[in-house]
Amino acid sequence: MTQRYSGRVALVTGAASGIGRATVLRLAHEGAHVVGCDVDTAGLEATGKLLAHDGYTATLLAADITDPAGVQRVVDALPGGDIDLLANVAGIMDHFLPVTELDDDTWEHVLAVNLTGPMRLCRAVIPAMRTNGAGAIVNVASIGGLTGSVAGSAYTAAKHGLVGLTRSLAFLYGPDGVRTNAVCPGGVNTGIGRTATVGSQWAFDRLSRSSARAVRTADPDEIAALIGWLGSPEARNVNGAVITSDGGWTA
Question: Which of 70, 121, 157, 238 would give a disulfide with 63, using CB separation of 3.0 to 4.6 Å?
Answer without folding.
Answer: 70
